[in-house]
Structure formats: structure tokens, C-alpha cells
Amino acid sequence: MSELTIIYDYALASGTKGAQNNSSLSPTTLTIYLKGNLCRTEMASALFFSTTFYDAKTGSAVILKEVSGQKLLIRMAGEDLQEKNKRYEGLTYSNEPEMKIIAGYKCIKAIAKTKDGLTVTVYYTKDLIPDNKDYEPLFKNLDGLPLEYELTNGNLKIKYTLSAINLNPIPESKFDIPKSGYREMTYEESKKLHVAN
Length: 197
Hints:
The chain is mainly beta. The chain has helices spanning 78-84, 187-193, and strands at residues 3-12, 28-35, 38-44, 48-55, 60-67, 70-76, 94-102, 105-113, 119-125, 145-153, 156-166, 183-186. Strands 7-8-9-10-11-1-2-3-4-5-6-12 form a twelve-stranded mixed beta sheet. The longest helix is centred in the middle third of the chain and has 7 residues, at 78-84.
């Protein structure tokens, strides 16, 4: 697949301590636009809005953040992204016998664990494989497209559930980075303010 839009709803999984009253994670959406080597990822909730533009050809990214009335633009070079995504390096998935149908696609269950203890449980389909496998470091080594997944770290569980999937062409303008209206900073500066993640 060279062009694809996928939308997930995500929230603290039921049973997680604080799941009922954590408004920062609920309701929240994650939208991913893929077009060739370009990717745009949007995370939106009542409290914040974040957009990441990633170019697999250059290996660089730009993050736009809107938090508490501030509009920030963070430029990230390839080495910045490597550092940010270090925990996912060498992540390998083991397929489980369990399967389920999601949005009409047959999905295989797979599990992986990072070196620092994050467990990823995913249902993915081999019917849709993005051309750009680097769009999400978490799934770089997955042999298909994740349609549902859950991240577990200790008592914290965050579940991503498919809301919509669209295979229509995406306009180039979706990947235009704003030239004004944002306070620009480096990845190093953003780390000091804890706003890059």
C-alpha cells in the first residue's frame, strides 16, 4: 500500500488504575496518513494536539505541538529520531495462534517485548502492508498493518482500537509544514522542556 489513512481510538484499557477518570487519555484519536515515503501522524484529545511529519527518504521529522495555548515546532534529524526511538530497536514479534476479524480483515495476534519492559500485543493483517515500513518504529519489523494493539508497562495499559481505514489518495498538501505561527526549537531544547514525546 502506497497510500493509506488509518484512524485509531485510544484510551487507558479498562481495569487499569485511573482508567475511569483520566481525561488526558480519553477520548483520544490517533490518525496516520501514509503517502509513499511521507507520513503524517496526528494525536488529538481535549487537552492537546500533536502532529508529526516524517520523511522516510531523508530520515528526518518535524513535530508540531499545541499545549496550553503554546504552539511549538520541533525539528528532528535522523540521529534525534534514533535516540527517541531507541527502545524499539531490534523489536521482534512472535505470532500467537489466536486470530480475529477486524474491519473485514483477518488479523494475526503477535506479541513483542522491549528491553525496558514494555509489552506490545498487536492484531495485524497481512492484506495491507505499507510501502513505508518506517512510518512507526514500533511496527517496523511487523509483517503487516496493525489494526488493534495494546501497550502494557507495569500497571499501565493503553489500547488502540481501529476506528476507520481509508485507501483513497491523500492530497500532497497534507504534508505541508507550516512556515509561521509556531515557536521553533531543536530536539535538544524540547527535551529540556519535556515536550518532544
